[in-house]
From TrEMBL:
One GO BP annotation of this record: carbohydrate metabolic process
Species in which this protein is naturally found: Tupaia chinensis (Chinese tree shrew)
Protein name: Beta-galactosidase-1-like protein
Any one GO MF annotation of this record: hydrolase activity, hydrolyzing O-glycosyl compounds
Domain Beta-galactosidase 1-like first all-beta residues, every copy: 350-397
Signal peptide: none
InterPro entries cross-referenced by the UniProt entry: BetaGal1-like_ABD1, GH, Gly_Hdrlase_35_cat, Glycoside_Hdrlase_35
C-alpha cells in the first residue's frame, strides 16, 4: 500500500546514528548517473540495470547551463526534461538524491525548485535529500555567509521537511559544512576510511555516516591513459562502509558521454581537458554494458540488503559499422558561408561568447593588420583573455 503524502518522512535519527524512512531504519546504497550524459531513450535501460545491481537510490546533478543557455531562457524539453527523468527513476523504484548546485539556486530560484517541490518525498515524490552547493569547502573563500544565504533560499522555497546536506572532501569539511545542513564527506577506495570518518564526526557528531562520492573509477584527460580502479579495492571499501551502517553513493555508477563541447577541464599546473567519453571505469560502461565490476558490487550489496528479483541485464546491442573513411573536402575557412550564412558580426573590439549569445563551442575572430610587419612579433592578449584554447592563423595559415 502506498503511504499518504502527509505520513511520509525521511529524517536523521541522531540518537541511533541512522536515517529513518517513514519511521523505519533506512540506509541508502546509491549510484550516480547524469541524465545529461545519457540520451533520453536510454534512461530507462540504465536505471533498470542500476536497480538490478541492488541500488535503492540514484544521485545526480542538475547543470544550470544545460537548462539556461542564456539568462531568462529555459529549456526542459527532450533530454533536458528533468521531470521525465524523475519519473523514470520512480518507475525503476529508485529514491533520488538531488544535487542542484549553487548557480541554480541563485539564478533558478523561481524556476527549478518550485518544479521539484511535488517530487519531494514528504509530498509523495521520490526525492529524499538535496545537496546545497558542491564541495564548497575546496574554495579558499570559506564564506559562511554565502552558504547561509543558499540554505535560506532552499528552505524558503522547499520548506523545512526536506533533508538538506553538504558534501566535501576531508580537507574541505571545515569551510564546507554549516549548522542546519547535514554534513557528508567523499573519498575513494585508496583513502583512509577510518581516519576520514573520524574527522567527519568532528563536524557531524551524531547521525549516519555518509560517503556521498565513493569513487568507482576516475575521469580521463586527453592524451593520457584510461583511468581505472581495481575491483577488489572498490568492493572491499564498499563492504567496510556498509558494515559500519554507512550510507554510500557510488560516483559514477554509469558515466555516459560528454556530448558536443560539454566536456570540462582541470587546471593542475597545466590545462587538462576531459575526454568526450565519461566512461569513468564505472560498473556500467559508457555503452551501457554491465561490467565485471557491476557483478562484483552486486554481490557485495547482496550481503547487506535484498537484491531485486529479475533477469540480469545483458550487454547493450551493438551495431556493426565497419571501416569508416573520411575525405578532406577543404579547410574550415572555406566553409564559413555555409556555417554562418548571415555573415560575420562586426564590432570594433572582440566580443565575448555571452555578448553574441554563444553558450559554448568555438568563435572565429578576424581582423586586418593596418601595417606590414616584417620581424617576428609577440601576439599579446590583454588581461589573460584566452581562458581555454586559441588557434592563431595569419593569411589562413596556422602559426
Amino acid at each position: 500500500l502506498l503511504l499518504q503524502a502527509d505520513t511520509r518522512s525521511f529524517v536523521v535519527d541522531r540518537d541511533h546514528d541512522r536515517f529513518l524512512l517513514d519511521g523505519v531504519p533506512f540506509r541508502y546504497v546509491s549510484g550516480s548517473l547524469h541524465y545529461f550524459r545519457v540520451p533520453r531513450v536510454l534512461w530507462a535501460d540504465r536505471l533498470y540495470k542500476m536497480r538490478l545491481s541492488g541500488l535503492n537510490a540514484i544521485q545526480f546533478y542538475v547543470p544550470w547551463n544545460y537548462h539556461e543557455p542564456e539568462p531568462g531562457v529555459y529549456n526542459f524539453n527532450g533530454s533536458r526534461d528533468l521531470i521525465a527523468f524523475l519519473n523514470e527513476a520512480a518507475k525503476a523504484n529508485m529514491f533520488v538524491i538531488l544535487r542542484p548546485g549553487p548557480y541554480i539556486c541563485a539564478e533558478w530560484d523561481m524556476v527549478l525548485l518550485p518544479k521539484i517541490h511535488p517530487w519531494l518525498y514528504h509530498n509523495g515524490g521520490n526525492i529524499i535529500s538535496i545537496q546545497v552547493e558542491n564541495e564548497y569547502g575546496s574554495y579558499k573563500a570559506c564564506d559562511v555567509i554565502y552558504l547561509r544565504h543558499l540554505a535560506g533560499l532552499f528552505r524558503a522555497l522547499l520548506g523545512d521537511q526536506i533533508l538538506l546536506f553538504t558534501t566535501d572532501g576531508p580537507e574541505g569539511l571545515k569551510c564546507g559544512s554549516l549548522k542546519g545542513l547535514y554534513t557528508t564527506v567523499d573519498f575513494g577506495p585508496a583513502d583512509n576510511m577510518t581516519k576520514i570518518f573520524a574527522l567527519l564526526r568532528k563536524y557531524e557528531p551524531h547521525g549516519p555516516l555518509v560517503n556521498s562520492e565513493y569513487y568507482t573509477g576516475w575521469l580521463d584527460y586527453w592524451g593520457q591513459n584510461h583511468s581505472t580502479r581495481g575491483i577488489p579495492a572498490v568492493t572491499r571499501g564498499l563492504e567496510k562502509m556498509l558494515k559500519l551502517g554507512a550510507s554510500v553513493n557510488m560516483y559514477m555508477f554509469h558515466g555516459g558521454t560528454n556530448f558536443g563541447y560539454w566536456n570540462g577541464a582541470d587546471e593542475k599546473g597545466r590545462f587538462l581537458p576531459i575526454t568526450t567519453s565519461y566512461d569513468y571505469d564505472a560498473p556500467i560502461s559508457e555503452a551501457g554494458d554491465p561490467t565485471p565490476k557491476f557483478f562484483a558490487l552486486r554481490n557485495s550489496i547482496s550481503k547487506f540488503q535484498e537484491i531485486p528479483l529479475g533477469p540480469l541485464p545483458p550487454p547493450s546491442p551493438k551495431m556493426m559499422l565497419g571501416p569508416l573513411t573520411l575525405n578532406l573536402d577543404g579547410d574550415l575557412l572555406a566553409f564559413l558561408d555555409f556555417l554562418c550564412p548571415h555573415g560575420p558580426i562586426r564590432s570594433i573590439l572582440p566580443m565575448t561568447f555571452e555578448a553574441v549569445k554563444q553558450d559554448h563551442g568555438f568563435m572565429l575572430y578576424r581582423t586586418y593588420l593596418t601595417q606590414t610587419i616584417f620581424e617576428p612579433t609577440l601576439f599579446w592578449v590583454p588581461n589573460n583573455g584566452v581562458h581555454d584554447r586559441a588557434y592563431v592563423m595569419v593569411d589562413g595559415v596556422r602559426t
